[in-house]
Amino acid sequence: MVGGEAAAAMEELVSGVRQAADFAEQFRSYSESEKQWKARMEFILRHLPDYRDPPDGGGRLDQLLSLSMVWANHLFLGCSYSKDLLDKVMEMADGIEVEDVPQFTTRSELMKKHQS
Length: 116
Hints:
Blueprint: H1 2-25, H2 34-47, H3 60-77, H4 83-92, H5 107-115
Helix pairs in contact: 2-3, 3-4
Family: Belongs to the CARF family.
Pfam families: XTBD
Protein name: CDKN2AIP N-terminal-like protein
């Protein structure tokens, strides 16, 4: 009956993943493309266990959602943030693969080229 137990365990795992994805869906912004949302949802789901709100509140989930937006805004829109914050979100996103990420030139890079 080992096969039946493995199938039941797999079904439970798939159900848990589906529930987590359904939970995360409520945080999708109407302006996010499918590609952006897929990447940000992966970021959220990866760290959700560490950022669940404690019973007394505390806003840990809000913090995770904010970090996910910082990462997505930096990646897809070229927004800049403090070095410490970017280091944190880039470390949290390590291993999340996004295809065809836009390339941005910062104002500082443009100014350096212009001064040369």
